[in-house]
């Protein structure tokens, strides 16, 4: 079946089943390896991408449900000299240890900051509670999100 989706600003026409998980299409068909396969059950958040303005667990989200929404992965957030404020803050705060959760954490943080531009630490922890980080970088992640929020507000 032909599915047309826009990922990171680029339109793609794919021959995939509509019920294929978005994560599989991103990784296998589009070679976008930023979103990670963690649990496959929408429990860990390693696969989080933006579908429209929503942080979405792509491991259980059918590609056919994307519709006209734009998909943004970590590859579309920023790169090279054009890092997003969140990416710069994660680097400055050393908010990644193993890095496996980082792309999902960054995408969830982007969705958070779009909804709540000036979150306090308790709000950040509550909003990102579903994003699992096993190496214990949570305090650094919270500081990084606060730093990015400040930069984005000017």
UniProtKB/TrEMBL annotation:
Pfam families the record matches: Fer2, Fer2_2
Organism: Paraburkholderia haematera
Gene3D superfamilies: 3.10.20.30, [2Fe-2S]-binding domain
Encoding gene (name): nicA_2
UniProt protein name: Nicotinate dehydrogenase subunit A
Residue ranges of every copy of the 2Fe-2S ferredoxin-type domain listed in the record: 1-77
GO molecular function: oxidoreductase activity
The enzyme's E.C. designation: 1.17.2.1
Keyword vocabulary terms for this entry: 2Fe-2S, Iron, Iron-sulfur, Metal-binding, Oxidoreductase
SUPFAM superfamilies named in the record: 2Fe-2S ferredoxin-like, CO dehydrogenase ISP C-domain like
